[in-house]
Write a sequence for this structure.
């Protein structure tokens, strides 16, 4: 698996659902002008780690490490590269939230 980028982002959503981590597998990556020289041609995977308010960081750390949020995101990206062609024709995302203090995962097709 080749990862296009690892981004650190801040999410402005509600306090009820704090986005922790998002993995994306794109069907197609268009322009690559923003990629560093030497990046493999047309990579399709990204992993984004979100900033968490200081009061929620202990729970976020537990969700990502103890509840295997980070491991699950990486496993999802690895499996995505070997999915069937029909699945690969569409963009997909895997998102981990901290919802009421617990890890919650959602998958979506875009």
């Amino acid at each position: 698996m080749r990862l296009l980028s690892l981004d650190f982002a801040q999410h402005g959503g509600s306090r009820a659902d704090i986005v922790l981590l998002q993995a994306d597998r794109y069907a197609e990556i268009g322009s690559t002008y923003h990629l560093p020289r030497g990046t493999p041609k047309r990579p399709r995977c990204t992993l984004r780690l979100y900033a968490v308010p200081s009061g929620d960081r202990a729970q976020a750390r537990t969700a990502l490490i103890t509840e295997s949020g980070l491991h699950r995101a990486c496993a999802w990206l690895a499996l995505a590269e070997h999915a069937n062609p029909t699945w690969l024709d569409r963009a997909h995302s895997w998102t981990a939230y901290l919802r009421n203090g617990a890890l919650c995962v959602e998958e979506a097709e875009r």
User: Anything to note?
Assistant: The first strand starts at residue 3 and ends at 10. The chain has a mean pLDDT of 80.
